[in-house]
Amino acid sequence: MGHAKRLTGLALTVALAGSLAACGSNNNNGDSASTKDNDGKAASNNSGTDTKATGNNAKADNSADTGIDTSKFETINYVVLGDKPKNGQLEKVMEKVNAILKQKVNAELQFKWVEWADWQTKYNLLLASGEPLDLITIGTDWLDTWGNAQRGAFLPLNDLLEKYAPQTFTEIPQEDWDQSKLKDDIMMIPEDHYTQWVNHGIYYRGDWAKQFGITQPITDFETLGKYFQGIKDNMKDVVPWDVNGTNGTLYTGFETAYTNNIDLPIATGFANVFTAKSYEERYTVDSPIFNDKFIDFAKLMKEWADKGYWREDVLNYKGDTRTELKAGQTGADAHHTQTFKGLRVDMDKAQPGSELQMFSYSDTLGNLVSMPITHGGTSVGAHSKDPGRALMVYDLIRQDPELYHLINYGVEGVQYEIKDGVRTRPAAYDDAKDGFYTDFWGGRIDKNEIPADTDWSGIGDIYAKYDKIKKPFPYGKFVFDKSSVDPEMTALSQVVGEQLPAILFGKAGDPEKAVKALRDKLNAAGYEKVKAEIQKQLDAFKATDQG
Fold this sequence. Notes:
CATH architecture of the largest domain: 3-Layer(aba) Sandwich
CATH class of the largest domain: Alpha Beta
Oligomer: single chain
CATH superfamily of the largest domain: Periplasmic binding protein-like II
Largest sheet: 5 strands, mixed
Radius of gyration: 23 Å
Number of domains: 2
Shape: globular
Helix content: 25-40%
Distance between the termini: 29 Å
Strand content: 5-15%
CATH topology of the largest domain: D-Maltodextrin-Binding Protein, domain 2
Strand order of the largest sheet: 2-1-3-13-6
C-alpha cells in the first residue's frame, strides 16, 4: 500500500525518462508476465560477450585488490517474489551473468522464487524455516520486513557492508542507512537510488468512458460505478471488472479515497488493520475498518456485486485480469502507477484507441504520502553460508552496468536493442519465446537504467500531479516492536484474511452485519490491546521525532 519514492541522486528529467519499473508490475522492467495485483542513462553493454571463467578453485580477479579470499567457489541464492519464467530465457541470461560473477568473485547467482499463489504465507514461512538464504528481497510496507527482522530472519550488516559492498555502502547516505536499522543494526540495503511511484488505483478504458458520457477523468468510486454500469448496458460478454478475488485493492481505495488515514508500517496480512488518523495526526492510531464510512463503502460494494460488476464466483476466481483487459474481455484492472505506464503502451497496441486511464485513489481527496525508501531492498539471511560473498555479488549486480542490464533487461539483441539511447524490442522479438524477467526489486538504481519505448510518454504529467500533493513519508525511523503482542497480531491477520475479502466484493451478506461481525472478531482477537501498544510506541517515537 505504499505510494511514492523520492528522487535520489538524479535530476527529475532523467528520472522521468528512465525505465522506472516497479515491484509488483508485470516484471522488473515492464515487459513479460509475472503478475501480482497486491509493485537512468545508457551505458556500454557487452552482455553478448562470452566471458571466459577459470576453474572452480581459481581466485577471482579482484581478490588481490580487496584482500578478500574468494578461492572457494560459492553459489549465492536470492529470494525474489514472482512466478519463475518457463520459456528458458532466464537460464540463458543467467549463464552469462554467472560467467561474469565467476570471473569477478568466483561465485554464481541463483534466484529462489516465491510464487504469487499465497505468496505472503510462503515468504514468511521460508524466512522462518532456518534455510540458508543469502540475499532476500524485502519491503517494509508490504513484506513485513520489520516483523521478520525482529524474528531473527536477517543478519546485521554493520560490520560487513564497507568491506564486501563498498560501492553501495559509500553511495547510500547515512540518513538512509539510519532508516534501514533495527535499533542499532543495519538490517537491509534500501533501494533508495531508484525512482518510482506505486500509488494505487484502478485502470479503465477512456474510449468506453466517453461512450458512456463520462467526459472528465474518473476521480471517485461513484463515477467508476457509472463506468461499470455503462459496460453492463453496452458491452455484450464483457465483465466490467473481472477481478481476482484475492486482490485487496478496494481496501486501499477505501482508506485513501474515503478517509484521511495514512499507512503505518505495521503489517497485518491481507490488509493493514492499523493506520494513523491523518497526516496531521500521524502519531494517533486509527483503523479504516472502525470508521463509520466503512459501512457505507461495504454497502456500495454489495450494490456493485448485485449489479454484476464482477463475476459471481469472484472470491474463487484466479484468472488474469490484465490479459483479459488487453483482449477486450474486461473493462478494468487495478495496480499502481508504475504498472500503468507500461500497460498504457501495451493497450495502445492491443486495443488501439482504448486510451487507457488511471483513477488513482489519491485523486479523490489528495491523500498521498511518499513511500519509504525501504519499499524495496535486500537483506542477508541470518543463516547465509557466506554473507560476505553474497554482499559482493549484490554490489556487482547493483553497480556493474553490464551485469545490471543482463539481470534487468536480458541479452542485447534478443530481449532488447538500443536505438538513439532508448531501449526497444528487436524486430524478431516474440514475448512467448523471448520474454525475460527476474523480478529484481531489491537493488535497482537510476544511473544504470536505460530509457525504454515501453514507457508511456504521458507519465510525466501524472508524476507532476502527484508531486503537487505528496507529503513526506513520516515513519522512516519508526519500527514497531510487536514482541509483546505477537499472538494478537497473528490472530488479527487471520481474521482480516478470512473476513475482509467477502466484504470488499459484496459477498458477505448484509453489509452492516458483516462489518459488525468483522469488528467483533477483531476485538476478540486483541484489537484494543495491539492498538494500545502501537499508540504507546508512537508516543515514544513522537517524543524522539520532534526532539
